[in-house]
């Protein structure tokens, strides 16, 4: 099937506090966006849509073409919106007509490997369902109200969601057309529209760079000798 990956990179990175929109912060000589796109271009896809802050569209295009190498014809860049959901909608509007499967991926998950992306595509192909990569929750989780623990939560029923999340293009498009509130992720938005969601095994390397500590972790991971 023809696959498009929408990479949302239009956030400001307020929690990272790194002096530039998060996707444009350097990990080494290359940006977070560039590292994310390396994984994306190593996976099977027909189109890669990058959603960037309006004033960074040109910079994102140059960075993406550099990361794409021979595959630069696959690259589109569009301006994002005020919320992640608006940014995904902007990316969706730029997906080519013949695309059948759409993945939505956070640029901030800079080290997500190509194998994870291919695994999500394969699961959408196999099931026709929405697909979310998940990892088990390792911490014991408490339900709290103020400073009081109000309930025990069964950790075995919980999973932490990552991206890329994958969908049939018609399903994702229809779900975005009817969405009337902000959802925490695309699989929640698609589920709210009545579509089933399946999981695949996520990857530790697909963690989201959110805080300065996460940035340090990503930097040390790429500096470490390869196994
Ligand atoms: N994103 C986006 N458009 C927005 C908000 C977020 O494209 N209006 C993207 C971010 O660029 C990021 C992904 O959605 O790749 C996940 O969002 P998050 O980690 O929250 O990034 P930011 O919103 O940039 O960070 P913060 O919430 O700390 O400001
Ligand atoms: Mg945010």
Automatic annotation (TrEMBL):
A biological-process GO annotation: isopentenyl diphosphate biosynthetic process, methylerythritol 4-phosphate pathway
One annotated GO molecular function: metal ion binding
Identification of the protein by name: Multifunctional fusion protein
UniProt family annotation: Belongs to the IspF family. Belongs to the IspD/TarI cytidylyltransferase family. IspD subfamily.
Residues of the full protein shown: 8 to 234 of 392
Species for this entry: Microbacterium oryzae
Gene: ispD
E.C. numbers: 4.6.1.12, 2.7.7.60
Keywords, comma-separated and alphabetical: Isoprene biosynthesis, Lyase, Metal-binding, Multifunctional enzyme, Nucleotidyltransferase, Transferase
Catalysed transformations (reactions): 4-CDP-2-C-methyl-D-erythritol 2-phosphate = 2-C-methyl-D-erythritol 2,4-cyclic diphosphate + CMP; 2-C-methyl-D-erythritol 4-phosphate + CTP + H(+) = 4-CDP-2-C-methyl-D-erythritol + diphosphate
Source organism superkingdom: Bacteria
């Amino acid at each position: 099937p023809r696959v498009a990956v929408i990479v949302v990179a239009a956030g400001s990175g307020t929690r990272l506090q790194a002096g530039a929109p998060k996707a444009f912060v350097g990990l080494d000589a290359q940006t977070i966006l560039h590292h994310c796109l390396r994984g994306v271009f190593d996976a099977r896809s027909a189109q890669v849509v990058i959603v960037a802050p309006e004033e960074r569209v040109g910079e994102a295009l140059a960075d993406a073409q550099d990361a794409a190498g021979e595959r630069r014809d696959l690259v589109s860049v569009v301006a994002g919106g005020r919320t992640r959901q608006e940014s995904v909608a902007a990316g969706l509007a730029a997906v080519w007509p013949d695309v059948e499967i759409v993945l939505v991926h956070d640029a901030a998950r800079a080290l997500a490997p190509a194998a994870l992306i291919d695994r999500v595509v394969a699961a959408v192909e196999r099931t026709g369902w929405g697909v979310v990569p998940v990892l088990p929750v390792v911490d014991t989780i408490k339900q709290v109200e103020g400073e009081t623990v109000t309930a025990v939560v069964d950790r075995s029923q919980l999973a932490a969601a990552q991206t890329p999340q994958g969908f049939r293009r018609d399903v994702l498009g229809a779900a975005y057309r009817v969405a009337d509130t902000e959802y925490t992720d695309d699989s929640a938005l698609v589920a709210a529209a009545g579509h089933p969601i399946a999981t695949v095994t996520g990857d530790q390397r697909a963690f989201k760079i959110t805080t300065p500590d996460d940035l340090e972790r990503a930097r040390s991971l790429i500096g470490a000798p390869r196994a």
